[in-house]
Target: Calcineurin-like phosphoesterase domain-containing protein
Amino acid sequence: MVQLVRRRAQPARLGRVLLRAAADDRRHPSLRRARGRDPLGHRAVPRRARRLARRADHDGDARGRLRPAVRPVGGVRARPRHGGPRRARGRRRLHDAVRARGLRGRGGRPVSAPAARRRQTPDHPRTARGTRVGALGAAAAVAVTLGVTAPGAPPATAAPIATTGATTSAVAQAESGSRFTLAVLPDTQFYSRYSADQFVPRYGTDPFQVQTEWLVENAAELNIPFVVHVGDVVDRENQAQEWTAASRAMGVLEDGGLGYSILPGNHDVVDQGARSSVGNSPRYLSNFATSRVSANPGFVDSFQNGLGTAYTFEAQGETFMSLALPWNADQSVYAWAQGVLDAHPDVPVVLSSHAIIGVQSDQITPADFWFGQELWDRLIAGNDQIFLTLNGHFHGATQRTRINDAGNEVYQILTDYQMAAHGGNGYLSLIEMDFASGSLDVETVSPWITKKLPEDVTRDDSPYLTGQWQSFSLPVDFADRFAGFAPDFAPTDDDLGNLSQRAREIVSQGWEGAPPEAIEAPGAREDHVAVEGTVAHWRFGDQAEGPVPENGTITDAVGASPMHRLPWTRRTPPTSSATSPSRAATCTPSPPTARRSASPTPRAWPDAPPTS
Model:
């Protein structure tokens, strides 16, 4: 074991004793394990040096001579015939070298040194541990400023710039100007899962297909040249009917001539913990392999038979790229992606993957994710072309901005509504690149809300969302942001209206508002929810307020298991069949075969109580 101590300036001769020990790794196995310096430039010094320094401080005689049993740090046994003055000089050299490196003696006391040397090498108040911690703290502070990570310090993943420029609404912009819309389909897994047995029988379609049909129908009016799917296409990778529903929905975009990119999420692969590979994604590739996705407009290249894809699309006279990487991308994917970027050095890039940034439990505050940090280190930070990242996976919506190696902003957006009603309520994101106003505007809309049956509409439904990171605007000077790699970036000056506002208007057509909240007291004691398979349903309210009297009974609506309060006396201590006076009631155990059921399907109570 070694300890790290900070190097201090001192004459070369004074440092020779300890330096000999550091170089003599043949004598000390601990030095062979810590040969050289650590990343912060500290010198490795063995614990043996500290031990000998203490002994030298306490085992000298009155004349300053070392006792014969002491070995100097260099490993040579002291011999008595060497004169006292020579030993005294060696002792001083040892102490000065030890003190110059901040070592301390027994009990935390600094090793003493002659007064003359003490003036040249003032006391070092910090211990070796404190020196290292302080250096790491300073390195981490510099790393945050520069946007890099110091060895041993926490990743500098807190965005170097805050998202203070964001506004809470994306609809406050210029009336007309140059702009286009990029559509994002977040996790569609539950749409695919419940398509065949729930959505199609009730609606004849599902939210996934309604989304893609709406995008095709409004692509021209909202100037949508491209659609990005961020993964988790299905919920259960081994269920063929889910892939059938997903393939049908994405086929709508193909039939409508609308370009798209798609990628596998963790629910689309066999082993979620494995790196991406063809063998780990058999059913995904049976539906979205290169043979299919290469027919999409703007196809550039694919990797691992379509797990990673690259497309270009035209918007306002400029070329953009969509680069889609699979869940838990293999290391070879980075090399492929870098090759694609190198082949298109002057094209702004939108990077998508299933999980890049996370979100905290409040579902609005951004959080780090290990793969997103790996992606940043390996690909995003060093390629100024990548200005926007999109992902899902984590439940909620959030955004953060980071600074890349070129000193420019990278906008990172997360969208995932799978835990809303109907597996996401049909919500999708529309990202408007507004060149006229100099902003990146995000809207969250749902073409599914107006398709819902009246009995399925709730008071929380809305065709568009206005919460934090659901409708917002980020200031972006696109020409300035792209100047480092595309100095001639100049979108056409078309006279287009406010696309975000227009999207709200379109999805709101036919919407009459959510029904008012209606809470009514039951009209009779029999007016309650009945759940199939219920074992016992104790109804309170027939008794007077207060503790249930001894020998009192709480009836069971099913009729098989009434609840009793049993009397208690000193000769009858409380057991599993009798309660203390402080308890209101006790439950008679159900038969061993009985089980509670939580089926969500209401039905009338049976004429007779269930038998098991």
Q: What stands out?
A: Residues 525-612 form one domain. The CA atoms of residues 231 and 265 lie 4 Å apart. The two ends are 66 Å apart (CA to CA). The chain has three domains: 2-125, 179-507, 525-612.
